[in-house]
Amino acid sequence: MHTVKDSVHDHIEVEGVAAALLDTPQVQRLRRIKQLGTVSLVYPSANHTRFEHSLGVYHLASRALTHLGIDGPRAERVRAAAVLHDIGHGPYSHNVEDLIHRHTGKYHDDVAGLVESDPIAGVLDDYGLDPERVTALVTGEDELGQLVAGELDVDRMDYLVRDAHHTGVPYGTIDTGRLVRELTFIDGRLVLKEGNVQTAESLLLARALMNPTVYSHHVARISKAMLRRASERLLDAGDVTGERLRRMDDYELLVRLREHDASRALADRLADRDLYKRAVWAELDDVADDVFDPEEPLFDPDHDTVRAFEADIAADADVDPAHVILDVQGQPSMRESTTGVLVNGDVRRLDEQSTLVRALQMAQREQWRLGVYAPDDLIEPVGRAAERVLGLDMDGALISETTTGEYASLDDYNE
């Protein structure tokens, strides 16, 4: 048994297959991948890694298994899946995941190639565990897969408290002890026991508050967009494949980006925190119906559509297309809203039971923003061009320079 001192859960005891898996190169690589990607450019202390998070997920999974009375090989498979659930992540976590998927067809939970080959497969075999069944748990298959990748999974329980701790933001604080203690299975579905509507609400409230404050903070979105664009240029140059990029760590990717002519300019800006600024920061109501499908106003446009808009904006502003980045969020989702809770003996969906959750779903829609980013000296012409090309309502959409030299939307003056 190994005892690890953790910044969030204090002492974590690691034993059995989990302890053996920690020493594999695929898991050790997670020490070199930041949990929050470029968010450290907003919150300097947000330097925690996917390795720490994986330990936390293992810890909470072990506690949940104990409360559920599950032991033996079934429990060991879950513990293995908890340790391995993030080994498929590319560099900077989710920041370049869509780009990697476009080039490889794989997301971070596509871990079969890693789990089902040595050395991980050999470790699992030593403990009598089938790698395919562990892989299935990582993707949420099987009843127990809900613990690792489901509506009430220990993955989100850990990342919320861990991200809040390392950013210093108090909104992600949740009672993980009560959450794992109150889990139960009803007809194969993982739900919260009677009297835990507020417990479930706290999870969604924490997620809803962390989203605009941390995960979708405008500086985090700008730096993510710049990293994604630099990585795209590196791939387009042909010196790195999508599969190679997928297996890099943060340090390796940044070095490659700064070494290559195609990506150096953006990579140097990221390294020096010389970021693009917001030329546009538009709410949903600022966007004309003829730009987005009125029936599906919150959509995830394809790559070619975004590039076409960027080219049109650059041409209208008479600037280099490399100086325009259009950032469109996809459809907001709140997967946790379908969490099952026992109420008067019946399993009910949380969003059907809770007025608060329905309000959070509405708030999430109102937090949606479309961003257009450009170098500091180009935000005025690019913003005006984006207004014309995208048919934006200027009120609240364009970015103006305040007397403090910071950039804020017109709406910020009313807060």
Tell me what you see in this structure.
This protein has helices spanning 16-22, 25-28, 50-68, 72-84, 97-104, 112-115, 120-126, 131-138, 154-167, 176-181, 197-215, 218-237, 242-246, 250-259, 264-271, 303-317, 350-353, 355-366, 379-390; strands at 2-6, 10-14, 183-186, 189-192, 277-282, 325-328, 340-343, 346-349, 370-374, 399-401, 407-409. Helix 3 crosses helix 9 (154-167), helix 9 crosses helix 11 and helix 12 (218-237) runs antiparallel to helix 15 (264-271). It is 47% helix and 11% strand. A hairpin with a 2-residue loop joins strand 7 (340-343) and strand 8. The model is unreliable at 400-415 (pLDDT under 50). It is built from 19 helices and 11 strands. It is globular. The strands form 5 sheets. It has a 3-stranded antiparallel beta sheet with strand order 5-9-6, with helices on both faces. Strands 1-2 form a two-stranded antiparallel sheet. It is mainly α.
**Physical arrangement of strands within the biggest beta sheet:** 5-9-6
Rg, Å, rounded: 22 Å
Low-confidence stretches: 400-415
Distance between the termini: 52 Å
Order of helices and strands: EEHHHHHHHHHHEEHHHHHEHEEEHHEHEE
Q: Which range does the strand content fall in?
A: 5-15%
* Rounded average pLDDT: 91
Separate helix tally: 19
Number of strands: 11
The global form is globular
Which structural class do you get from the secondary structure elements? mainly alpha
What's the story with the biggest beta sheet? Answer: 3 strands, antiparallel
Q: Indicate the percent of residues in helices.
A: 40-55%
